[in-house]
Amino acid sequence: MILGSTAIVILSSTEYAKRFEGHQGEYYALILFSATGMMLLASSMELITLYIALELTALPLAALAAFIRERKSAESGIKFLVLSAVSSAVLLYGMVLVYGLTGTSHLSEIASSIADHGLESSPALLFGIVLITAGFGFKISAVPFQMWAPDVYEGAPTPVTGFLSVASKAAGFAVILRVFYTSFGLDSANIDWANMIAVLSAISMSVGNLIAIRQNNIKRMLAYSTVAQAGYLMVGLAAITALPGGDDNAGPIGVLFYLAGYAMTNLAAFSVIIAVTHKTNNDSISSFSGLAKASPLIAVAMTLAMISLIGIPPTVGFMAKIYLFGAAMDTGLEWLAIVGVVNSVISAYYYLRVVKVMFLSDPEENGEDSKTSYGVGAVSAAVIAMAGTFLFGIYPAPILRIAHTAIDSLIG
């Protein structure tokens, strides 16, 4: 998933990267370094390795966010670097507490050590878990740790924003699945994980969707959309607690399937945004006016991406929400599934607004250069991601098989 997302981001960047004035090599190298960190992060089985992989992921992303020589981009990079450093410090302090109490940094041994030493009700352990949860909350931009996302997404180069919204989130949720399923499960600490995560999920969905309604910048809108998407993904994390009558793997499989569908959908959306901003040098929603007439292909790609983010058939977003909300229903969290459905309806307002502008509005005089193309790379990336969004919505079996297999290596 991370490799595929990286490949599509690089493909979509081919024309966009020309504005980096001879620094294209460094740009692509930083993307590859960050992708390497994400893959190490998703496969980490030990706290120290996990932390090193986290820094290998974050530092190149901070440099990428500030890659354009503009005030907004510099502000974006500095804000991401500072807040990422703070969250990493919080996460590291939590890891130190857990290590000091359990005497091990191996994820598979932490749960047994907690049980052997009777630490389930230890205030220090609970505090350490809270710090680790807060650190991860920043990485996935979940409420109340989402404050960095809108400004960073808006100021960063558009391909970097897409990369940040997809690949880093995939890596973040993968490591969360591993850590909390393996080390801090039901028997590891006296914490009501189901209701705690469910409440955070409901708040993230609601806050993200309600604030996104008011946005006029497409990247800022998708930043708040990302907060809401983190809330949907946390539905699966809540279901991992496997309350009586639930399927033990329903939650993690739902999370992995949703991540795959979300990756394809968001990459399609950001590839179109890259193409449009390359031609118009404008990332407001109004810059998409009349896109259906100017380029029907990428307008269709953007439309599929928007309806997939809502969760409308026959897209992969619909199937992904079916599996996530189904996992919540199976584990006694019916109220959370209802909140998710209501939020999906709310999100339709701002997603369909983009579709309306593309098909029903007349093109604006926005300084668009008629000689500048939308970019072969960005259009190709949009078509590839669009095809995945549609085909896996009709036939999701291949992704589900991969998700089932991945569970064994991820949390098995």
Q: Order of SSEs, N→C?
A: HHHHHHHHHHHHHHHHH
What is the number of domains?
2
Query: What is the straight-line distance between the termini?
Result: 19 Å
Low-confidence residue ranges: none
Q: What fraction of residues sit in β-strands?
A: under 5%
Q: If helices are DSSP runs of H or I spanning 4 or more residues, what is the number of helices? A: 17
Largest sheet, if any? none
Given helix and strand content, the structural type is mainly alpha
- What would you report as the Rg, rounded to the nearest angstrom? 21 Å
**Would you report the number of β strands?**
0
Q: List the quaternary state of the chains.
A: single chain
Shape: globular
Question: What share of residues is helical?
Answer: over 70%
- Provide mean pLDDT, rounded: 85
Structural overview:
The protein has 412 residues and is an all-alpha fold. The chain folds into two domains: 1-190, no CATH class; 192-412, no CATH class. It has 17 helices and no strands. Helix 8 (158-182) runs parallel beside helix 10, helix 9 (193-212) packs antiparallel against helix 10 (218-239) and helix 10 (218-239) packs antiparallel against helix 11 (250-280). The radius of gyration is 21 Å and the shape is globular. It starts with a helix and ends with a helix. The mean pLDDT is 85.
